[in-house]
């Protein structure tokens, strides 16, 4: 059996120390209230805006195909807005359930 040189033992100890420091730094940190609120606000904004934009795009394309110039665009914008509000409502309900747990 070969003896391990002293410098290799020291190197292994340094590696173990650094790994423990890294594990300590990577531990789960609680999310601040500001970070949580900004994350939720951004998601709500994106849900509402994306619903309206997708509805408007579908209405615009259908207007071009059918010839009912502004009417389908307006109608599908309202449908997209309703879908966005519904998505926000579902998200709020799921967050309420998470907070109670």
List the helices and strands and how they pair.
Layout lengths: L5 H20 L7 H34 L4 H30 L1
Helix pairs in contact: 2-3
Short description:
The protein is mainly alpha-helical and 101 residues long. It is built from 3 helices and no strands.
Task: Walk me through what this model shows.
- There is one protein chain.
- With 101 residues, this protein is mostly helical.
- 83% of the residues lie in helices and 0% in strands.
- The protein starts with 5 loop residues before the first helix and ends with a helix.
- The model has no long low-confidence stretch (mean pLDDT 90).
The parts where pLDDT drops under 50 for at least 5 residues are none
Summarize model confidence as the mean pLDDT.
90
H/I helix tally = 3
Distance separating the two termini: 56 Å
Order of helices and strands: HHH
The profile of the biggest β sheet is: none
Shape field? elongated
Care to count the β-strands? 0
β-sheet strand percentage? under 5%
**Rg, Å, rounded:** 27 Å
């Amino acid at each position: 059996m070969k003896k391990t040189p002293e410098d290799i033992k020291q190197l292994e100890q340094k590696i173990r120390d650094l790994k423990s420091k890294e594990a300590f730094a990577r531990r789960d940190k609680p999310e601040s209230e500001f970070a949580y609120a900004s994350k939720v606000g951004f998601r709500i904004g994106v849900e509402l805006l994306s619903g309206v934009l997708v509805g408007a795009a579908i209405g615009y394309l259908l207007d071009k195909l059918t010839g009912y110039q502004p009417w389908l665009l307006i109608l599908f914008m309202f449908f997209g807005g309703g879908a966005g509000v519904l998505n926000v409502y579902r998200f709020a309900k799921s967050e309420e359930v998470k907070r109670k747990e």
